[in-house]
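The records we work with from here on pair a chain with its fold. These numbers are not coordinates but entries in a learned vocabulary of local backbone shapes. To see the layout at work, look at the sequence and tokens printed below:
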Amino acid sequence: MNRLRRTPIDVWFEPIIILAIGIGYLLWYRSTTFTATEKASLGWANLQTTILAHIKLTVVATLIVVVVAIPLGIALTRPALQRFEPIVVNIANIGQAAPAVGLLVLFTFWLGTGFRTAVIGLVVYAILPILQNTIVGLRQVDQRTIEAARGIGFSGARTLVQVELPLAVPVILNGVRTALVILVGTATLSTFIGATSLGTLITTGVTLFLPKLLISGAILVGLLALIIDWLGRLVELAATPRGIS
């Protein structure tokens, strides 16, 4: 009982919401009569392919963003490169501020349609949260802690790896969670440039006026976003050093 009280409420409450929505959708799905087009789109074989394509698009884009944004954020907190921080953050902010559809269309003119173009567009759109949180997380580490580490003989690199990054982990992972949720939602737009995603269900539902297909696509995207957010929260909780909350 005490353990449950110490556990953050979102860790156990979010799965309850996911289960409630999932069970509700399954009950609705089993009791609803679908048209031939809806049956074809929502058949398990086709639906599984669509969901896996959406997850693949999201995961690949997230991995690229993490590999780019975290090292870049670390570099921009080092004294030699601090002066470039406003420029880089403002450039990343352009990607976040621009309409996602507009970005994807612009990249389509340059790279053509398909999976690769969708990934690049999503990376540009989602880089800001992780970059900014990496910078903020490292900047909020107490300078006295860093000086103490250097005072006992730690090199700059060792101080970064063993002191600064562990203390900045909660903030950095929060940025990764934010980017993941953004990407899950934004990935639906990739259907406009020929990349398979759950957005295909939504656009087909709108184009052919099939509300049940539209509702299914929206619910599945929402469920996927909630599941990924919850898994990200578990990773964040597990990776946070004891004594930091």
